[in-house]
Structure formats: structure tokens, C-alpha cells
From TrEMBL, chain A:
This is Autophagy protein 5. It comes from Coffea arabica (Arabian coffee). InterPro entries: Atg5, ATG5_HBR, Atg5_HR, ATG5_UblA, Atg5_UblA_dom_sf, ATG5_UblB. The gene is LOC113697759. It comes from the Eukaryota. It is found in: Cytoplasm. Belongs to the ATG5 family. It holds the Pfam family ATG5_UblB. Residues 13-106 form the Autophagy protein ATG5 UblA domain. Residues 120-176 form the Autophagy protein ATG5 alpha-helical bundle region domain. Required for autophagy. Transmembrane segments: none annotated. Keywords: Autophagy, Cytoplasm, Isopeptide bond, Transport, Ubl conjugation. Conjugated with ATG12. Residues 233-268 are annotated as: Disordered.
Automatic annotation (TrEMBL), chain B:
The keyword NADP does not apply. The gene is LOC113710862. The lineage of its organism: Eukaryota, Viridiplantae, Streptophyta, Embryophyta, Tracheophyta. Keywords: Autophagy, Isopeptide bond, Ubl conjugation pathway. Forms a conjugate with ATG5. This is Ubiquitin-like protein ATG12. Ubiquitin-like protein involved in cytoplasm to vacuole transport (Cvt) and autophagic vesicle formation. Transmembrane segments: none annotated. SUPFAM superfamilies: Ubiquitin-like (SSF54236).
Length: 329, 90
């Protein structure tokens, strides 16, 4: 966010919260009657492990002996703790569930499914590294984040912890990670042509042509061309992009464009798609959700990025895809 | 078309006082997650605590795909992974 004052949309995003109803897993209830669920308002831009200090008092008297290794699950699915709460909600609740019923565990961490999390420090580390990754994509290096003073880094993290947008802007504007106007540059990296994976990494951008600006729809189509088989793409060479950052050598597979574009001072990484590893031509985009809203695809992408991205400078787009069941005879 | 995972060349580089591996370059499936590199390093170096970075810059999330990291951060046809025994680029 390059602006010095918060936009109204940014304020809405930072104030956004998900009402949670958190149940202790039955295997960890040692008292009768079982404890009532904890009702917590979770900031969208926050992370579930950060809520543990609020949640624990509801259940501490009933927990079995042992040390805490907290994890959350939704309908049996262990939740990845490094994904912002709002994104988890947008992704997992096709029909928004209010309150969102989650189960918390304090024991038996599924180490084979979830990466370890030791509370706030783990979340902070993950956050700072994501921020560095974003900086690297935008600037080609993450010196700006690495050179932050300790007090600035602490203040940045605290601003996220406390949902303090003004404080966040104050510190983050020093990082100069803002987008330059409406200019964008497209740097698309799709991996193997045959390998369809759910999360496409890209830095989306496009220059303004004849008064038309690059829209959210353009960005999604460029990132997930396989989901728009019948529509013409803004640029044919986008369909199978293979772009290097000017220094990388060509990858083994054939490249349609072969043109290298260096990252401009723009763009954020787009992450997060609904799980669908085997997209076929029958796939349809049912829903595109960002920060709990379904923005019109005509909205300029620059606006979407500037206003709806998360504090670590990633824009999380949740995409719902309908895949037809194969007909078996 | 059979989907063959493409291999990515990973170059492991020691930082600080971390031991240097005899063999530092490996090929790994692009479809693997970064955690595979981390676990490999842990086993090779017999150390649980390791700090692992890409391009001496940041520590990717262990669940990131090698192919994504390579596509975005690869240099000269390989992914450079630095490892240290203590935090190098905090």
C-alpha cells in the first residue's frame, strides 16, 4: 500500500472479521458438562494461532494433562495456520456460515499434515517471509524489508496483530512496495504445460491501451486461462506463457512467447485457488471471492490490489470452480 | 499427455558456519514441496534446526511448490537454496 492514508476500502478490509464458534474436540474434554464453545470475532487479516490466548481460557480447566500444540480444523480438515483467517473462510465456506464453526485441538498435532506452529513467533516469521517474498517479486530483491529497523519491523507486526491500519501504513509506506499508478506488467509463470496445479503464481499487469485498463477479469483470465476456454484472451501469447525475469535461462519445455519482461514496480503475487487439481475443459468459474466479496470483474486490477491485498502484500483470490463429474457408463 | 513432473535443479549453498555438502546440486521434482528440500538438508546435516532461504533473501513457506519457486526465483536454470545453522537474514 503506497498511499499515506488509508482508503475507505482498506479500512473495511482491516475491520473485517469472521464470527467464530470454536468447539473443543471431544477427545480433549475431560469434564462434565462439556465446555461451551468459545465465541470469538476473528480479524480477516489475522491468523488463527494468534487467537489462542483468547480461546484458551474457555477450555483450560477441561484439557487433559500435557503441553499445548494447538491446531484448528473445519469439518475434519486441518487448517493451514499460515493462511489468513479471512482467506480460509472465503475458500472453505461456499455458503458463508455465520458463525463459522471450527474445532480446536490442544493435543495431537498432525505433524504429517500441518507444518509446525509455535504460536505467535511462527506466525510472525511466516508473515515477514511472505512480505520478503512479495518484495522480491516486486523489486527483484527484498532489501527494503531486510533493512527495516528492528523497531519498524516490530511496529509493522504489531500493527497486523492489533489490526491497526494507520500504524501499518505509517511503517509499510517506508517499504515502497506500492503500485505505480495503473501501469502493470505481466510476468506469468505457469509451470509445466501438462501440470495443472491449483495455485498459479503470477505478477499480473498490463499497460493501459486506448483507455482500457487492466481489469480483475483480465488478471484472472491471464492467470487461469484453462478456466476460460471459450473466451478470447487479451493477448494470445498469454495462453501458454513462459516468461523469465531477464536472467533465467529457458526452461526445458517449449515457450510460446520467449520474451523476457523484467518486473516493473508493480504487481503482487496472486495466490490461492480453490482446490481443484484436475481441471478439465468442462471447468467453470462459479465464483471469485476476495476479502469476502465478489468483486465485479470489470474493476481495474490496480484498485483491487491496492485496496484488497493482505498486509503481507499478497492478494488472495479464492476461486470456485465447477468441474463436471465424468460420465461413467 | 502423460503428466511428467519436470525436474528442477536445486543448488544448496552453505551460509555462515553451516557444513558444506559434498554434493551440492540436486534434481528434484517440480511437483514436490519445498519441505522436501528442508527435510533433505536436516537429514544430511543431522540437524533439526536449520534456516533455509532462497537467493539469500527469504524463507519460503515449506508448502510452496518447487516449480513455483523456480519459476519465480530461479536464476540461471537453477534454484539457489541457502542454509544456515542460525538465522542469517532475519
Amino acid at each position: 500500500m503506497g498511499s499515506k492514508t488509508a482508503t475507505e476500502a482498506q479500512k473495511y478490509v482491516w475491520e473485517g472479521a469472521i464470527p467464530l464458534q470454536i468447539h473443543l474436540h471431544e477427545s480433549e474434554v475431560t469434564t462434565l458438562p462439556s465446555p461451551s464453545p468459545a465465541l470469538i470475532l476473528a480479524p480477516r487479516i489475522g491468523y488463527l494461532p494468534l487467537l489462542v490466548p483468547q480461546i484458551k481460557p474457555f477450555f483450560s480447566s477441561t484439557l487433559p494433562p500435557g503441553s499445548d500444540t494447538v491446531w484448528f480444523e473445519y469439518q475434519g480438515l486441518p487448517l493451514k495456520w499460515y493462511i489468513p483467517t479471512g482467506v480460509l473462510y472465503d475458500l472453505l465456506c461456499a455458503e458463508p456460515e455465520r458463525p463459522w464453526n471450527l474445532t480446536v485441538h490442544f493435543r495431537g498435532y498432525p505433524g504429517n499434515i500441518l507444518t509446525p506452529c509455535e504460536g505467535e513467533d511462527s506466525v510472525k516469521w511466516s508473515f515477514i517471509n511472505s512480505l520478503k517474498e512479495a518484495a522480491y517479486i516486486v523489486n527483484g530483491n527484498c532489501k527494503n524489508v531486510m533493512n527495516m529497523s528492528q523497531s519498524d519491523q516490530s511496529e509493522l507486526w504489531r500493527s497486523v496483530l492489533n489490526g491497526n491500519l494507520e500504524a501499518y501504513i505509517r511503517v509499510s509506506s517506508k517499504l515502497k512496495l506500492g503500485l505505480g499508478g495503473d501501469d502493470f506488467s505481466i510476468k506469468l509463470n505457469t509451470s509445466s504445460l501438462k501440470y495443472r496445479q491449483s495455485a498459479a503464481d503470477a505478477e499480473a499487469s498490463a499497460t493501459i491501451k486506448a483507455g482500457k485498463c487492466f481489469t480483475l477479469g483480465d488478471a484472472v483470465k491471464a492467470l487461469l486461462p484453462e478456466l476460460f476456454p471459450d473466451k478470447s484472451l487479451p493477448n494470445d501469447s498469454m495462453s501458454l506463457p513462459q516468461v523469465e525475469d531477464g536472467e533465467g535461462s529457458a526452461l526445458e519445455e517449449a515457450s510460446d512467447t520467449g520474451s523476457a519482461r523484467s518486473p516493473e514496480d508493480t504487481g503482487e503475487l496472486v495466490r490461492e485457488c480453490q482446490d481443484s487439481c484436475s481441471l478439465s475443459e468442462t471447468a467453470d468459474v462459479k465464483l471469485i471471492r476476495i476479502q469476502g466479496i465478489e468483486p465485479k470483474l470489470e474493476i481495474p486490477f490496480a484498485w483491487v490490489v491496492n485496496n484488497l491485498m493482505n498486509p503481507e502484500h499478497f492478494l488472495h483470490i479464492s476461486v470456485y470452480v465447477r468441474v463436471q463429474e465424468p460420465i461413467t457408463v | 499427455m502423460a503428466s511428467e513432473p519436470r525436474k528442477v535443479v536445486v543448488h544448496l549453498r552453505a551460509t555462515g558456519d553451516a557444513p558444506i555438502l559434498k554434493q551440492a546440486k540436486f534434481k528434484i521434482d517440480g511437483s514436490d514441496k519445498f519441505v522436501k528440500v528442508i527435510d533433505f538438508l536436516r537429514r544430511q546435516l543431522h540437524r533439526d534446526t536449520l534456516f533455509v532461504y532462497v537467493n539469500s533473501a527469504f524463507s519460503p513457506n515449506p508448502e510452496e511448490l518447487i516449480t513455483d519457486l523456480y519459476n519465480n526465483f530461479g536464476i540461471d536454470g537453477k534454484l539457489v537454496v541457502n542454509y544456515a545453522c542460525s538465522m542469517a537474514w532475519g
